[in-house]
């Protein structure tokens, strides 16, 4: 009887040890759920709603849907100072991701800021050149010698250079005033500036009041010359440690694009609501080629465009740096996000 009790006790003890050991090992081998907030920067013309798939992913909760299972929240950060302020935040490690103009990404990469190209989120043209009535500017040729506001080192800078090239005017032949977009329009309103680069729609009040007029629209210009990529980049040190976060964000963008494709006019109405621009202003630059204007990939067409931007920047002495284009992108993110998203996971 004693032997029987002893054997039962021994069996129970061994079973307890095995259960505890299995639990302990599984706890050690299972990855812990990460927690934290990722900061995603984007340029602002004065509003706080990011463009295209990024904005839809926020509004419809897609970023929450894909980031929360990984233990992450997100915080969108708008930058009125645009590219220079964004680059300062990247260097200070205040941002993990950025969605902004390809020109700015090329300039920063060439100048030594370490980030990784994840995907091209947009193929677009949203700038206008606005001139003050009474400035003497009627055509592009009249820009010579005038005070023109732009944003140095950002997409409006490249746009202005292209407009001047079209007019046959050298950059040194104008009085270039570096300012953010609202300051440029304020300068036109006050009469201290002759012209300014504006994000499409933000010039409407000045035009309606008879203060200004538009003499060049990027969206209506030669697409081969003026259209440019918008990109999704990651701070490299963070991305190396947490590549799954970029995949989750890319999936949210893919879902947002599908939502846009279902009813493009619904998306344009949402854009009008979020930006405060009248729907007719939004439709001025509305592109119904949803997949073409929101590519969300790294096809050679867009990489070649980024290479062309680097050449343009060098030709205009905006950088002396170079980019190793084969190593800059992480092509695995877009591929994996596409595979997982289409599998329904």
Look at the structure and give the mean pLDDT: 89
Full CATH superfamily name of the largest domain: Periplasmic binding protein-like II
- The Cα radius of gyration reads 26 Å
Number of helices: 16
Order of strands across the main sheet: 2-1-3-10-4
Low-pLDDT regions: 1-32
| Proportion of residues in helical segments | 40-55%
Largest sheet: 5 strands, mixed
Structural class of the secondary structure composition? alpha/beta
Give the overall form. Answer: globular
Count all strands and give the number. Answer: 10
Highest CATH level, the class of the largest domain:
Alpha Beta
SSE run: HEHHEHEHEEEHEHEHEHEHHHHHHH
- Report the span from N to C terminus: 58 Å
Overall tally of structural domains: 2
Q: Kindly identify the CATH topology of the largest domain.
A: D-Maltodextrin-Binding Protein, domain 2
Primary descriptors:
345 residues, alpha/beta, D-Maltodextrin-Binding Protein, domain 2, 2 domains, five-stranded mixed beta sheet, 16 helices, globular, disordered N terminus
Describe the structure.
By secondary structure, the chain is α/β, with parallel strands linked by helices. The protein folds into two domains: 36-124 and 228-342, Periplasmic binding protein-like II (D-Maltodextrin-Binding Protein, domain 2); 127-225, Periplasmic binding protein-like II (D-Maltodextrin-Binding Protein, domain 2). It is 49% helix and 19% strand. It is built from 16 helices and ten strands. It has helices at 2-29, 52-59, 62-67, 82-91, 102-110, 155-167, 181-190, 204-208, 223-226, 236-241, 243-262, 264-275, 279-284, 290-293, 300-315, 331-342, and strands spanning 36-43, 72-79, 97-101, 115-124, 127-132, 147-150, 175-178, 195-199, 212-217, 228-235. The strands form two sheets. Strands 2-1-3-10-4 form a five-stranded mixed sheet. Strands 7-6-8-5-9 form a five-stranded mixed sheet, sandwiched between helices. α6 links the parallel β6 and β7 (175-178). The protein is globular. It starts with a helix and ends with a helix.
């Amino acid at each position: 009887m004693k032997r029987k009790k002893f054997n039962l006790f021994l069996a129970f003890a061994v079973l307890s040890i095995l259960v505890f050991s299995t639990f302990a090992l599984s706890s050690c081998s299972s990855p812990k759920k990460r927690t934290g907030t990722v900061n995603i920067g984007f340029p602002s013309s004065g509003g706080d709603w990011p463009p295209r798939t990024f904005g839809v992913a926020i509004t419809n909760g897609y970023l929450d849907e894909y980031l929360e299972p990984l233990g992450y929240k997100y915080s969108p950060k708008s930058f009125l100072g645009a590219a220079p302020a964004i680059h300062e935040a990247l260097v200070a490690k205040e941002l993990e991701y950025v969605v902004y103009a390809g020109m700015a990404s090329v300039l920063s990469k060439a100048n030594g800021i370490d980030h990784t190209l994840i995907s091209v989120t947009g193929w677009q043209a949203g700038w206008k050149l606005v001139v003050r009535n009474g400035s003497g500017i009627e055509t592009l040729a009249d820009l010579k010698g005038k005070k023109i506001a732009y944003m140095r080192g950002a997409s409006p800078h490249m746009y202005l250079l292209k407009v001047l090239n079209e007019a046959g005017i050298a950059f040194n032949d104008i009085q270039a005033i570096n300012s953010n977009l609202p300051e440029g329009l304020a300068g036109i309103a006050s009469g201290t500036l002759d012209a300014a680069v504006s994000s499409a729609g933000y010039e409407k009040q000045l035009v309606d009041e008879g203060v200004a007029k538009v003499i060049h629209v990027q969206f209506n210009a030669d697409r081969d010359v003026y259209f440019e990529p918008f990109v999704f980049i990651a701070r490299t040190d963070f991305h190396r440690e947490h590549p799954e976060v970029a995949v989750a964000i890319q999936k949210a963008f893919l879902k947002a694009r599908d939502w846009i494709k279902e009813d493009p006019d619904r998306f344009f109405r949402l854009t009008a609501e979020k930006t405060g621009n009248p729907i007719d202003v939004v439709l001025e630059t509305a592109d119904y080629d949803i997949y073409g204007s929101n590519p969300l990939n790294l096809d050679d067409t867009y990489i070649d465009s980024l290479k062309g931007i680097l050449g343009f920047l060098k030709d205009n002495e905006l950088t002396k740096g170079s980019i190793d284009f084969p190593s800059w992108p992480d092509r695995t993110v877009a591929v994996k996000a596409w595979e997982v998203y289409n599998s329904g996971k």
